[in-house]
Write a structure and sequence with these properties.
16% strand; six-stranded parallel sheet; alpha/beta; Rossmann fold; three-stranded mixed sheet; 8 helices; globular; 207 residues
């Protein structure tokens, strides 16, 4: 898929192309890995214009990083484009990824993080505020960075890429934590408890 060659790592940026996603950090990481890799960006810019995408294309050319803007051939389900190109599902792309990049500055919660956990992939993630407060304390194993990527982050990313056993260990650990804290069963139980409390309050107010 996407012309990825044997021995080439696929880094996945599963977000829209907008400035707050800081995709330039993912491009920088790809360059500093000093390995054969391609960065696949799954989504488009949406309604926020193309200036940022133009900047990223120029940066990728400058740093000699292969970046694949794949929004035309990635969707929630498989299909064909009007010119008969194959459309891959987002699940397909996650399952082919060797490493997910998620360097956002701001997120409401982080759907892409949960998707990464669900598809059992290792992740490099910026420690944005909600991640720091609500997610990181639960014990997820990630390559987390603050304002910029250091040599230590690059070393850890290379370690994960070169050691499939380590990548699987991290991913399985995170998947089990995801089941514990963010599964539909957990949501169902919490909503049931909330509805019970609301029902109790209404009963007392009308008695």
């Amino acid at each position: 898929a996407f012309g990825i060659e044997p021995g080439e790592y696929l880094l996945l940026q599963p977000t829209r192309v907008v400035p707050r996603k800081r995709i330039e950090q993912a491009i920088e990481l790809a360059r500093r890995l000093n390995s054969r890799c391609a960065l696949v960006i799954s989504h488009s810019s949406g309604d926020e214009g193309t200036a940022y995408e133009t900047y990223l294309r120029s940066l990728a050319d400058l740093l000699e990083v292969r970046v694949i803007f794949a929004s035309e051939v990635v969707a929630h389900k498989r299909g064909r484009t009007s010119d008969e190109r194959r459309i891959f599902s987002l699940a397909d792309v996650y399952q082919q990824a060797d490493l997910v990049t998620y360097p956002s500055t701001v997120e409401g919660f982080g759907n892409a993080f949960l998707e990464t956990i669900y598809y059992r992939r290792p992740i490099v993630v910026s420690i944005y505020e909600i991640f720091r407060r609500d997610i990181l304390p639960k014990g997820f194993r990630v390559i987390g960075f603050e304002d910029f990527i250091t040599e230590e982050h690059v070393r850890r990313a290379l370690e994960v890429l070169s050691d499939p056993g380590l990548a699987e260990e991290m991913s399985e650990h995170n998947y089990e934590l995801g089941r514990r804290y963010y599964s539909y069963r957990v949501l169902e139980n919490r909503l049931a408890g909330l509805l019970d409390r609301i029902s109790g309050c209404l009963s007392r107010s009308t008695s």
